Amino acid sequence: MDFQELIKLRQSVRRYQNKPVEREKIEKLIEAVHLAPSACNSQPWKLIIVDEPELKNQVAKATFNKAISFNKFATEAPVIAVLVMVKAKLIAQIGGGIKNKEYPQYDIGIAAAHFCLQAAELGLGTCMMGWFDEKKIQQLLNIPKKRKIGLLITLGYPPEDYSLRKKIRKPTDEICGFNSY
């Protein structure tokens, strides 16, 4: 698939078919994350694939509550991927400290983009979620308390009638400058 077509195809999916995702496709997604670049090749993440239905539902329910309900769709997804930040290599930590940059956060974003683009190419839908009860998910998935969860990604097959939405973006001259701000 042409890369421009792929990035136009990828969108946040908030409805899913009641259909499991094949293990072979999940393995391709894992490999996409595995190949993602990172500062000093630290690969400061641990990817947890949650596909056991009861556990997945508990994780999904930790993404919303009575007051904040916009992630309720997560219960429909047959899989939730959890990207946990782990310690970067010492050289990346030193560089990040000197430059006041959180390289692992950038790296998690790159890994998530690889995951979502690979999913789109495989005919799967995804939605990145940054709103969740971190302590609850840490408990459910046995994530050490000293680790931070970067984000969650729902994964599954969108319904047949799920249409591609028009992407609304700022004009390119507002987001890009040549040789000057």
Explain what you see.
This protein is of the alpha+beta class and about 180 residues long. It has a single domain, classed as NADH Oxidase. About 40% of the residues lie in helices and about 15% in strands. It is built from seven helices and four strands. The protein has helices at about 5-10, 25-35, 55-60, 90-100, 105-120, 135-140, 170-175; strands at about 45-50, 80-85, 125-130, 150-155. Strands 1-2-4-3 form a four-stranded antiparallel sheet, with helices on both faces. Helix 2 (about 25-35) runs antiparallel to helix 5 (about 105-120). The protein starts with a helix and ends in a 6-residue tail after the last helix. The model has no long low-confidence stretch (mean pLDDT about 95).
Secondary-structure map:
Elements lengths: L2 H7 L13 H12 L10 E6 L2 H9 L17 E7 L4 H10 L3 H19 L3 E5 L4 H8 L6 E9 L15 H4 L6
Antiparallel strand pairs: 1-2, 2-4, 3-4
